[in-house]
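TEACHING EXERCISE
Course module: macromolecular assemblies
Task: Read the component lines below, then compare them to the predicted structure of the full complex.
Student: A.B.
Group: 4
Components provided:
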Amino acid sequence: MNVYQSVHNDPVNHIDPLGLETKPEGTDSSSTDQSFADWARTNNVSPDQPSISTEAIASPQAPEQIHYGSAPPVAQQALGMLVGAAQSLKDKLTQLAGTVFDAGSAAVRAASGGERGFANGESTTNSFFHTAGAATEWGRTLKAQGETDLSVLEVFSSAMPLSRPVRSVAPNLNILNPEFTPNAGAVVQNATDRWAGRLASDPALAKTVLSPAEYAAAQNSCGVARMAYGNAVERLVAKDLQDPLSSTLVRYTGGSRGGSMPDFIDLTTGGLIDITTPGQVASKADKWYGPGLVTPTYSRPADFTQFP
Amino acid sequence: MNVFNNRIFNGWNEFDSGRTHCDVRFTHCTFQSCSLALSERDLAKRARVVNAELRQCSIAACGVTAVVFEDVLVDGLRTSSLFQTWAAVFKHVTLKGKIDRVMFSPFFHPGYYKSQFQRVVSEANASYYAGVDWALDIREAEFKDFDCRGVPSRLVKRDPETQIMVTRERVLKCGDAIRAGGPFWESWLKLFVEDGWYEDGVLVVPKRSSKRHELAAGLQQLRRYGVAEVD
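Instructor-supplied answer key:
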């Protein structure tokens, strides 16, 4: 059985962890927030967080809070310890990798979809502060940023060569088959098969993901019903893939921003994934995102016309 | 309160953190492909958003699951397609201004709405709402589409002219009177009765729909025929 373990919650970071690559053309409006990055990795991070009990959920105050703008002393002290540990880990990673971070690869452009004109596709990650992630900003350089500022954020990234999978340099990973390469398209296809099958056997499932207005429209028009069926499959798949592991493979885009967006982006290759019916595969391939598009397919039941 | 203006958050994923995010305001920000979600079946790891404001923000392809929202203001929200929250709970959450398409679902995962864990989630959320004086204030919201499931309707502050409350018990007694509001509301009420997922609901006229006047008139007809609960 192939099992792999993610060491970060966004593999885009493995390609351009600090967002140092040149900003892709056509993304002038894109940016991420440096102050947010600072907040995420410094002042307001409390590494040692108590878990919230079930009872606490119903109480007005949770035991651990992240205040946007203040820096609890305890958190700062704990952060100092974390940064120290991170620096140590960074040194070890650097030794293991035998290389230094090089932001010159163009891989990020393909991975981010920047050449395809995504409005936001260049953004690397805001994986938050659980491990080392933070928002990044295009245009920063390693030199300009300085060693101290990189601190925690750098630890999982700077030692990693851009062209090498992260698993080859990270120590102590629980990998049964290190040659295993996840196939995001196959993952989406499997999920599509699963939920299209479920929907075919239980059309009422669509009620859980369509609004009453959408469902009502699909009860009155065959054309609308076909679209709604596709929306239901897509939303079920997207929901199913909303978990820490799947989120390292594919990113749901919603598909409709500006009209011509694929449903998912393959975060491991930068490929585009769009769920469709077999009859629509050809027309999808002719869309502006062109060849290379992966199209997981589903089929509606032959007797489907409208929702019940 | 920390303020973020004109920022794009892309791929900000936080799963099972159990954290509380508070005292923050986002203005003219975009959230793209972000997740704030419970993934593991452990309610102790729900995230919280407390004392937060979103003003004139956009949200696209984001996942929000089992989050606790308290003292939150959303003033204007653009959405890509239908923005859905799953099994989230709300306390003192105000939606106002122009808001596109939003759906609050009681399900942890829509594909497993009959699961055992769904019952656990439903019980936890019901317990939460037992201590809430009001959950949502949608009086000043102008929706394109709004579907509010799983939030007790008595905890929703409504504009009585365009937003009515119905209960399954009353709708079942009304028979053909549910047709009084026109085909859209009839369809809505049939789904509501058939599903049996929740006992009451709020019918909201999408004020930004071209059919808003017709739909508002339909609600008044439902009120006249006794389908709507008395305000």
